[in-house]
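Notes from hallway chat w/ T.B., transcribed later so I don't forget. T.B. wanted the structure written out for a chain they're using in a teaching module, and asked if we could keep both sequence and structure tokens in one place. Agreed to drop them here.
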Amino acid sequence: MAVNEKDPTERGRAAVLMRMVGSYWTGKQRVFAWALGLMLLVLILASVKLQAVINAWNARFFDALEKRAQADIAPLLWQLAGYVVLAGLIMMLTVLVRMSLMVQLRRWITTAIYTHWLDTRSYVRLDRDAKGAETPEFRIADDVRLALDQLADLAVGFFTSLLLAITFFEVLARVGGSFRLEAFGGITIPAYFLVGAIVYALIVSGLTSILGWPLIASIQRKNHLEGTFRYELMKVREEASVIAASGKEAQRADKLAASLEELVRQWQKVLLWQSQVLGVASSNAVLVGMVPVILAIPKYMTGELTLGAVMQLATAFVQVLMALNWIVDNFVRFAEFRASANRVGELVMAMDGLGPDDAGDAVAPAGAGARETVV
């Protein structure tokens, strides 16, 4: 079949990979897949619950410090030691289960793609310069790995952030209470800590999105050039006898130098956009710890808030901002995922000349059969 030359949207290319990910949860391996998924869910819930418990501990501990209640401090420190050990254990198990799930998913999708690549004889009939068929080896081996690794981290991080936001929204609204602005005619702001967190998060997330969106295309181009450079190196080894016999080492060196130079220029573009995103994230990391304390000053000075309540609010504020600013902390990772997912989707679509709405479904059956032989 002829290769589809239409350039689909980025969303369409990435959706091809996502449909293949969906097939992993419905195949014959679904029992094992769902078992890992449920284990991961339980660990995430345990982690969020532990964060809520530690938040309440903060209030008790700093209230004890404020009252100089020495008899209460030692038991609280022993509780903290237990929380630290439990947090480490939960994190260790979470990483183990998440990485196991990612590795199994990678095996499923990689097997599906290379099986389809061979069964359709795409390795023969697709020219390496055709749209989506450039450096297929890099796409199958590296882009699949990069996309799925980022996808696993993003999915776990997003779900954890969502649960943290829901948990600590209530803390901010309940403990922080409302605030009356006498200077503005006695206007009362309900749950003003929560309102402050949302406004702050919208500002930082919006700025990050504006500065970082071009990063996706830059990373995708960089990954393409990485594959091209690797291909040129591979050709030198494959054609070693011809190059040696004709004495064309200098020509090949020039070709490698040109390919490497283009790759370096693209890396410089990636670094420019990435530095802007990380700059916003770094500034946010410095400021985020001080914002809740500043908001608490008026009520603390009037005695409406104890020191323990201030520290509890500060911890909850940071947790909510981490959840709401999830895009700030993960924009680079999201860009890496989209870039690699787009490249995988392009290859799948190029195999049969399919559009983005058909390509993922076309590969899944082949992958399912291949997966059963691997396990």
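Follow-up for T.B.: Residues 1-8, 365-375 have pLDDT under 50 and may be disordered. Might be a good example for the class.
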